[in-house]
Amino acid sequence: MRATVLNLLTIVGVSSGFLTSVHRNTAFHRLSYSQDQADYSPKETDFEKDDETYDASSVNGEEDKEGKKYESTELGPVPMSKNAGNRFIVILWDRLLDSENRHMIDLHDDRIQHTEDHVIFCRKSNLYNETFNSNSMVDVLFSRQLLSSDLRRVIGQVMCLESTDLKYVRDMLQQEPLVQFFTSGDLSEIPIYRWRHIRDFTLRQDDGRDGTPA
After folding, report:
1. What is the CA radius of gyration of the chain?
2. CA-CA distances (angstroms) from residue 168 to 27, 72, 90, 116?
3. How many CB atoms lie within 10 A of CB 75?
4. How far apart are CA 122 and CA 116, in angstroms?
5. Which residues, 6+ apart, have CB-to-CB distance to 122 below 8 Å?
6. 213 by DSSP, 3-state: which?
7. CA–CA separation, 11 vs 17, rounded Å?
8. Which residues of the chain register pLDDT less than 50?
9. Cα–Cα–Cα angle for 205, 211, 214, nearest 5°?
């Protein structure tokens, strides 16, 4: 009698589990079917027709809207400056050029006041043509300030000048605002180096920086 009852309970449990699983699977399929009732068929409004036709000549700029054709001109390389020739490196050390033996902070503040005049002077040297500043014989390729080891003070200036002769570089430096401020045009304490371009790949290798200006 006891075995019969256990068998009946087992059969009822299995059948109830089977019915539960069937009910869950049926509910899942019904739910997925109800969520997937969107219409994905394409419509005519989904596709737009281009009114304008593609014209390769309009892209190349050979023909405008009125139908006029223009001949394309090939531009040549930018001509070299009339002052192209020799390059020189000029280094200004403020402490060595200071004849009044000023404090380093006062020297920094005084030379900063002449920075704007220096920039305008360099830009004017590079700005010339047949009618304006035609007597400029030196091009300033770059002019950069030298910083102290703590990167807080300006201690000098380095300039790269290009000209056909060294005498033009000296004449230009005698009128430069920073040189006028420090030495009143005296170039005896200002080193001028000739920059010779050596095409060696080892010079392009960077040794890195340790936190100080290179």
Report:
1. 41
2. 95, 42, 13, 23
3. 5
4. 10
5. 140, 143, 159
6. coil
7. 10
8. 5-6, 8-34, 58-59, 212-214
9. 50
Q: Is the Cβ–Cβ distance between 92 and 179 less than 8 Å?
A: yes
What is the token pair recorded at 70? 């223009």
pLDDT value for 27: 46
Instruction: Yes or no: say if 176 and 118 are a contact pair by the CB < 8 Å rule.
Output: yes
d(CA 156, CA 153): 9
Find all residues with CB under 8 Å of 148, minimum gap 6, and list them.
154, 155
pLDDT tens readout for residues 114-170: 999 999 999 999 888 777 778 889 999 999 999 999 988 999 999 999 999 999 999
Q: What is the pTM of this model?
A: 0.56
Burial (CB count within 10 angstroms: exposed 0-12, middle 13-18, buried 19+), residue 28: exposed
